[in-house]
């Protein structure tokens, strides 16, 4: 028998609208829904503060809308499952976040998101709204280090939003935030593995095919091919492989302080994720690298995909202040 789709939805055509309706109702004290596909932090914009906007396809909950709130994002443009938001959605999100100091758009390196947000920024310039982009490309599996501009953005977006939220709250200007944001992206490296695909609501079919005894190293958040398909391994074995590739890519060195994100891709239990983290910290200690802050949980999923990713960010003093900054985002632990 093939994989059968089982999801608690009413219809594929209405699922995103119904989800956003429920999200806005459940979090009415923190968010507003001024447009069908745009959510904003309640009280946005803040006059004189650089606005922070993100956007992208649905299916990654709690990303992206879960990071709306004080200290993180001001507005999010929402697309269909794994699909870019429309240009009008992008324009509306940027407008709603503009408090007169400019807007910084922080998105993953995906062609549809880049194109639509790029068009929105160009058109809004005619209205006098200044906006810049920081493009996240932390996935080491998706392109060689010599062509980082081609890499996908994955869970590294989380640490970027956290640091930039701190800078915005403390009055940094758009130029400073763009510069620091680009540095956060450069200092961040991620790699994931999956043993089970998600089921696409549009077709009822899996996002990729894989044998019961296999896993794919480097699989993308939308089911994009990874770098190697191997037999299932024990937790420490696959963690060692991922960490070897991540550590060598920056490279991370003795004396570095890092944040760590152990990110479940949708159906991997916390029991498993904490086993992974124990091995990650052990390996970092062996390399003389200090964990400044770890986060373990589901931060950037792929529907119900079975797997996890590891994200390391080399921190400087500004980034550490961003990590420590208290926030009020809906789905981010303080």
Provide structural commentary.
The protein has helices at residues 15-26, 87-97, 111-125, 156-169, 174-186, 235-249, 270-286, 317-324, and strands at 31-35, 38-41, 51-58, 75-81, 103-108, 131-136, 188-196, 214-217, 228-231, 257-264, 290-297, 306-314. With 334 residues, the chain is α/β, with parallel strands linked by helices. It has two domains: 15-136, 3-Layer(aba) Sandwich (Rossmann fold); 188-323, Hypothetical Protein Tm841, Chain: A,domain 3 (2-Layer Sandwich), CATH 3.30.1180.20. β5 (103-108), α3 and β6 (131-136) form a beta-alpha-beta unit. The model has no long low-confidence stretch (mean pLDDT 96).
Features:
Rossmann fold; Hypothetical Protein Tm841, Chain: A,domain 3; 2 domains; six-stranded mixed β-sheet; 334 residues; alpha/beta; 8 helices; globular; single chain
Secondary-structure blueprint:
Layout: H1 15-26, E1 31-35, E2 38-41, E3 51-58, E4 75-81, H2 87-97, E5 103-108, H3 111-125, E6 131-136, H4 156-169, H5 174-186, E7 188-196, E8 214-217, E9 228-231, H6 235-249, E10 257-264, H7 270-286, E11 290-297, E12 306-314, H8 317-324
Parallel strand pairs: 3-4, 3-5, 5-6, 10-11
Antiparallel strand pairs: 1-2, 2-4, 7-8, 7-12, 8-9, 10-12
Helix pairs in contact: 2-3, 4-5, 4-8, 6-7
């Amino acid at each position: 028998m093939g994989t059968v789709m089982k999801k608690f939805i009413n219809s594929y055509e209405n699922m995103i609208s119904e989800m956003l309706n429920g999200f806005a109702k459940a979090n009415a004290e923190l968010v507003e829904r001024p447009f069908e596909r745009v959510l904003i932090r309640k009280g946005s914009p803040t006059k004189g503060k650089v606005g922070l906007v993100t956007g992208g396809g649905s299916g990654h909950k709690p990303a992206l809308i879960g990071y709306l709130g004080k200290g993180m994002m001001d507005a999010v443009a929402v697309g269909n499952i794994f699909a870019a938001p429309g240009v009008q959605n992008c324009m509306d999100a940027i407008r709603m976040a503009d408090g007169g100091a400019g807007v910084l758009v922080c998105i993953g390196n995906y062609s549809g998101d880049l194109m639509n947000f790029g068009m929105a920024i160009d058109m809004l310039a005619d209205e006098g709204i200044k906006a810049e982009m920081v493009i996240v490309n932390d996935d080491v599996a998706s392109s060689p280090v010599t062509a980082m501009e081609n890499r996908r953005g994955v869970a590294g977006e989380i640490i970027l939003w956290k640091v930039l939220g701190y800078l915005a709250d403390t009055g940094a200007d758009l130029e400073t935030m763009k510069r620091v944001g680009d540095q956060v992206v450069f200092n961040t490296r991620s790699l994931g593995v999956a043993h089970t695909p998600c089921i696409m609501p549009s077709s009822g079919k899996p996002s990729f095919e894989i044998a019961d005894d296999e896993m794919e190293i480097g699989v993308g958040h939308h089911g994009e091919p990874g770098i190697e398909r191997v037999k299932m391994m024990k937790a420490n074995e696959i963690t060692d492989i991922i960490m070897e590739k991540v550590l060598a890519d920056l490279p991370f060195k003795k004396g570095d302080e890092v944040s760590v994100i152990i990110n479940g891709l949708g159906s991997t239990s916390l029991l498993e994720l904490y086993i992974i983290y124990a091995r990650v910290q052990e390996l970092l200690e062996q390399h003389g690298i200090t964990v400044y802050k770890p986060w373990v949980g589901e931060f950037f999923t792929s529907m119900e995909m079975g797997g996890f990713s590891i994200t390391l960010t080399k921190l400087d003093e500004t980034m550490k202040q961003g990590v420590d900054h208290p926030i009020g985002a809906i789905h981010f632990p303080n």
